[in-house]
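I hope you will forgive my troubling you with a question about protein structure. The record follows directly beneath this note:
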Amino acid sequence: MEASPLPPTAGKFVVVGGGIAGVTCAEQLAIQFPSEDILLVTTSPVIKAVTNFKQVSKILEEFDVEEQPSIILENRFPNIKVIESGVKQLKSENHCILTEDGNQLVYNKLCLCAGAKPKLICEGNPYVLGIRDTDSAQEFQKHLTKAKRIMIVGNGGIALELVYEIEGCEVIWAIKDKAIGNTFFDAGAAEFFTSELIADKPEAKFAHRRTRYTTEGMKQEARTKAKTSNSVGSALGPDWHEGLTLKGTKEFSRQIHIETTCEVKKIYLHEEFTVLKKASLTFPGDHHNKSIKKTDKEIWPVYVELTNGKIYGCDFIISATGVTPNIEPFTHGNNFNLGQDGGLEVDDHMHTSLPDVYAAGDICTASWQPSPVWQQMRLWTQARQMGWYAAKCMAADSLGESIDMDFSFELFAHVTKFFNYKVVLLGKYNAQGLGSDHELMLRCTKGQEYVKVVMQNGRMMGAVLIGETDLEETFENLILNQMNLSSYGKDLLDPNIDIEDYFD
């Protein structure tokens, strides 16, 4: 006999997703409606909390992301009720969510913040790993301890951090672009960082300051649930590799070989490779003589054939080729408008195409007319901003109030760290969408700083700042106020001129 369904749980506001966007949204709603229950649905026993938040300038912000047991969130906000379960179905016409564990959650307003999942180059292959959440990062660490050689495929943030951090293991890095870090950098900045890959990695100056929580028993149970619900953990935040020992079986610091302008053509398991009698290449040790190609005598569990014709054997492959919005199972039976990238389209109030359903973070696609110097990128800074703003919009709508678009969407601004350098990206930092009608100004001191500004019609449209340049606040203001800088010419980047005082 089938168990009778549990009685519905009502919450004026329901948020799905325990990542940065979801938790920020739930916290903001809890502050604005202290007497209302805020229901937060998440598949994991731990949630992602923003800590050590610092407003660097008007828009630029820095923070850490900390995993915490959900009870800590509930203690801080007594009106947040965390429901640890996957979502089975959204019945938007009934304003109701069915969870994997049989709960029915009835909402007035719903915000979907279920994030994104890795685009794997090959599904179902045990030698292909994607890194998206803490569990998959720990799984990778476990594999790495037994590895002599790995291949990393992809050219985004996670790939960049991995190639720098991994020690004691040969790394073949396959990228489809001509230069590393194409998502964030131009060829000049890529060259600045490539020289850092060749140099020995400096010792870590200090231990990381964030608290770490161990919830192994709960996590094991959550993993079992997650496998049945096809869910994925929340995205990794900044410094995700801190506390992980990314070391292979060998004694050297770093050995990296980069294969540019290529993609994966085919992956062979050892048995198949042997039958086909193909030959693989050894790790290219001689960087000065690219024509030397030696056949590898070593036996590997998996082999990768690249579109440039080269074949390499390795212990496993890291697929770091981006993410796809995690829209299942919300779309079944619901007529959402979807963006070209597969995300749930949201308007300038984070509202989807369905009544009373909002979305924020990696799951959504911004479909409003953006500011000339803003673009959506699936980064933790935007996840926080979107979650915060979605809560404001939900609150305003509930109270029958109007709300202006948040100022953080006026300018794209992101601060991170690559290869131990502070990296600030502002506006159209890679001249995105500007066509050929722009010029670049550069200043570079090898091993110290790299400064690039993007100019159009005498106005600053974007900037890349690598190193401790102290220019971020000044450049942010210059991009926002669109002052005509034609008369300053190259003086704008003259290191002998104190540009901050100049425009103070």
Q: What stands out?
A: Residues 243 and 397 are 42 Å apart (CA to CA).
